[in-house]
Design a protein that fits this description.
The chain is of the alpha/beta class and 518 residues long. It has 16 helices and 25 strands. 30% of the residues lie in helices and 25% in strands.
């Protein structure tokens, strides 16, 4: 069967296995025919609301099947679902929704106060639909009930964007990566081959749907007819219980979650007999945590290296490499490219390819790449080159066997607990605190989160800066994971002749003696 749309597998399995369970969430389950009917209903409801191809909707909630329904509905209508990080501060949520130009916003009941707070800043929003809630408070179910039967007349093209995921930018504002039928279909195929997704897979989706580690992981399983288990939020003990109860075969978590797993009492005595694949990525895995995991979980581990702009994973370190006694160093690598992906190591200054062991920037080319950043042509041109190569911003090298090793970042991004933090957006908030004359934000090692955010602050002449007060100030304007965990008061910040802060010099003392600088 030729797959031109991410919705094609939904149609296929609704026809071939209408009564088999497709998805389960918090004790509720839907068969393939029921799931397909709900997606068509969500699509027809968009048509009835006057949404047209190219329009955006936005979704703000913790993991909920409705988010996947809306995404698949958008793929039928020609619209795009801008899934917003629910961990963001209200002003950041306002920016993302406003930037997308969403005409309809779907919001989980517990986040209605956030949307109410910023509603006046969202002039393009015509309707807010509440997802979940008690009784008649579930506006989403009522909205589905209003839809006419049938299927939209629109036929999407392979390069139509149906999913828009926001990734933080070096300017201090997030960018909407436009993912298409072509990019996600290519990712689905690569993921199926890399992770062994098959018809009998039971796929747990526990990572947030505003990440590719959530939505792309879910779509990859659905593409082969896997049964999907959606987890609303990460509660380690409950997740391990559900793996055993539902016979989960495949799951993906960020390294911090594995750290929580291994700290649970009796974790090694639990039932993991159904598991075939445990994936991890989004941040470096601390070697002590990996060693504990290999003892606790007698299953196949897969490290993934990917990014939003590539619809998910493009390089994988497979299970054999995790337990290869002859090459223990490969546990520090990001594996090798997946099928259909090419990776170059390039001198960012000259654009020339570098040889094994030489550190440069990773460039990747595959049908998985995004169409570009929404309404940001200059940023798109900087990242996505005309010949299809995408600049990752990550620095590293390739060994003689083709394994990729990430050693640093070309850009200044910090990854804390799998979340991307760009110094510029934190610095923008810190600089507004009374008494701050200058600031640079860096990532420093953290055994639990991989990196922690640190602010290096220069006080204005005659002023004093209250470190605790500064952190509280950041918490009022930023998501908690973006806030500095510590503040260092310094006399000056090192800068180059053009005035750019030399973050590498600031980071160096904290990362001394470590093989990886991220």
């Amino acid at each position: 069967m030729t797959i031109d749309s991410v919705a094609d597998p939904l149609r296929r399995f609704a026809a071939e296995a209408p009564d088999e369970e497709a998805l389960r969430y918090e004790g509720r389950a839907w068969t393939w025919s029921e799931w397909a009917e709900r997606v068509r209903g969500a699509a027809m409801a968009q048509v009835a609301a006057g949404l047209r191809p190219g329009d955006r909707v936005a979704f703000l909630d913790k993991n909920h099947p409705a988010c996947l329904e809306v995404t698949l509905a958008c793929s039928l209508v020609g619209t795009a679902n801008a899934v917003v990080n629910w961990r963001l501060a209200a002003e950041e949520v306002a920016y993302a929704i406003g930037d997308s130009g969403a005409r309809v916003v779907f919001v989980g009941a517990e986040f209605v106060p956030v949307v109410d707070q910023i509603r006046a800043k969202l002039p393009a929003v015509e309707r807010v639909i509440v997802v979940g809630g008690d009784g008649d408070g579930d506006g989403y179910e009522a909205w589905l009930g209003e839809a006419a039967p049938g299927e939209p007349e629109h036929r999407s093209g392979p390069d139509d964007c149906f999913l828009q995921l926001y990734t933080s930018g070096t300017t201090g504002f997030p960018k909407g990566a436009m993912l298409t039928h072509r990019s996600l279909t290519a990712h689905n195929a690569a993921a199926a081959a890399a992770f062994g997704f098959t018809r009998d897979t039971v796929n747990m989706v526990a990572m947030p749907l505003f990440h590719v580690g959530g939505t792309s992981w879910a779509l990859a399983g659905m593409a082969v007819g896997a049964r999907t288990i959606v987890v609303r939020e990460v509660l380690p003990d409950a997740i391990l219980d559900e793996i055993a109860r539902e016979g989960v075969t495949h799951a993906f978590f960020v390294p911090a979650v594995y750290g929580f797993f291994t700290q649970l009492p009796g974790v090694a005595e639990r039932d993991y007999s159904s598991l075939r694949c445990l994936g991890y990525g989004g941040a470096p895995m601390p070697p002590p945590v990996m060693r504990r995991c290999l003892k606790v979980f007698p299953v196949d581990f897969y490290q993934v290296y990917g990014m939003t702009e590539m619809s998910g994973v493009f390089s994988v370190l497979g299970p054999a490499d995790h337990r290869d006694a002859e090459h223990p160093e490969r546990l520090l690598s990001a594996g090798r490219p997946v099928a259909g992906a090419e990776v170059r190591v390039v001198d960012p200054a000259t654009g020339k390819d570098l040889g094994p062991g030489e550190v440069g920037e990773f460039w990747v080319r595959s049908d998985q790449h995004m169409a570009g950043y929404w309404a940001k042509p200059e940023a798109t041109a900087e990242t996505l080159l005309p010949d299809g190569w995408l600049r990752t911003g990550d620095a590293g090298y390739r060994d003689e066997a083709g394994y990729l090793y990430i050693s640093d970042r070309v850009k200044d991004m910090i990854i804390s607990g799998g979340e991307n933090v760009y110094p510029a957006e934190v610095e923008r908030v810190v600089s507004e605190y009374p008494g701050v004359a200058d600031v640079a934000v860096i990532g420093v090692p953290d055994d639990r989160w991989g990196e922690a955010v640190k602010a290096m602050v220069v006080a204005a002449p005659g002023a004093t800066v209250d470190e605790a007060g500064l952190i509280d100030h950041c918490r009022s304007a930023l998501a908690s994971y973006k806030c500095p965990k510590s503040v260092d008061l310094v006399d000056t910040l090192p800068r180059n002749p053009t005035g750019k802060v030399l973050r590498r010099e600031l980071r160096a003392p904290y990362w001394a003696g470590r093989e990886r600088l991220v």
